[in-house]
Design a protein that fits this description.
Helix content is about 35%, strand content about 0%. It is an all-alpha fold.
Length: about 60
């Protein structure tokens, strides 16, 4: 599926969410250090505040 979507982004399913991926960095940090991962992103994903970032092309 990854290769298929990478080759043709229109093949990306529209009904899937990947919120679980957002927790990977904090879980990895906590497992490695034993400390709580305390980070607040500059732009909350729910509000889509980083509108300038949405216009950038991915290479």
């Amino acid at each position: 599926m990854y290769e298929k979507v990478l080759y043709d982004p229109t093949q990306m399913p529209k009904d899937l969410t990947f919120e679980e991926l957002l927790y990977i960095p904090s879980e990895a940090y906590e497992r490695k250090t034993g400390k709580q991962y305390d980070y607040t992103p500059a732009y909350p994903i729910e509000t889509y505040n980083n509108q300038a970032g949405w216009t950038e092309e991915i290479e």
